[in-house]
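Lab manual, section 2.4: Encoding a predicted structure.

Procedure: take the sequence of the chain (198 residues), apply the prediction step described in section 2.3, and record the output as structure tokens. A sample record is shown.
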Amino acid sequence: MRVQMFNHTAGSFEGGILYLIDLSSQKRGSVEQVKIIDKTNHTSSLLATMPGSSMNGLTPAQTQAQVQESQTPGYPDVDIVDLVRFASQQLYAPERLMPSHPSIYRTPLRVKSLQSLYRGGELQSIPLASWKGAGLYVTAVKIQNKTMADLTLDPRLFRGQWRSRTLQYPGVSRYQSESDTTTVYLVSDRPFHESLWF
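Recorded output:
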């Protein structure tokens, strides 16, 4: 059984780096706290969620430059990582840990359900909520596997014009299993319905 550690998906971030971790539970598991020790080049950890990172051959320095460009002047405290963290906590954090931010606010959604948001897979996509901050939009979309096979998701295959695509979990199990659903956080320059293309 997978443990949904949503706090940790958007928990302590140092230097604007987003760490996504997948945890599982066991009857006799460790009770020690999880530590992340990053000895690699910090900018490389952003490549998984930046659009076109591997397809366009961006270097870590170019990827970091894209993140810095997204930090709109006048909003020094809000960037892509902040938006994804905020959205994840709004959906999954306990009420006592629910964040608030003066520069991030909820925006209306005009799309209820999508069948073809992800290329090459029978996935149902249901937009859950959208927020705006620093001139950027982040939309949380529930993704459910409708096939009888386990799927590993590639963030690059979500259709639309996105600044970043971040998955709560990198894969989904077969339909009607306990883990057939995940959430993707899509960051865009325009409202969600204007950023879609098929």
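Check your result against the sample. Residues 6-195 form one domain.
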